[in-house]
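User: quick one, fold this
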Amino acid sequence: MRSTVASFRKAFTPKHATGRPVVRVSQVPVQGTTAVVPAKDITVGGQPLSRILLTNSSGFKPGQVQARADVTRIGGTWYVSNSTSMSAAVPPEHSDPLPGSRR
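Assistant:
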């Protein structure tokens, strides 16, 4: 678990960041007590999360990584819910075939 959290921290932190970068979220439409925040509307240390993910990736190009945070308001405070999602179109040179399959 610790290595997984460390890999998330690395992926979601701008290169050359020091200390604890400030995270800011743009105002997005709210439906009741939930909202969906695209990665482009989340900044970490002044950089859009979408750019950070791309910069820290290994070969992805603009448009191949889609990320968002599904958030829920509980008692007046917003929390990232369990349904945070990220998807990416994997470049062929980085995809491993399933055992027994052919490229």
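User: anything notable?
Assistant: The longest strand covers residues 65-74.
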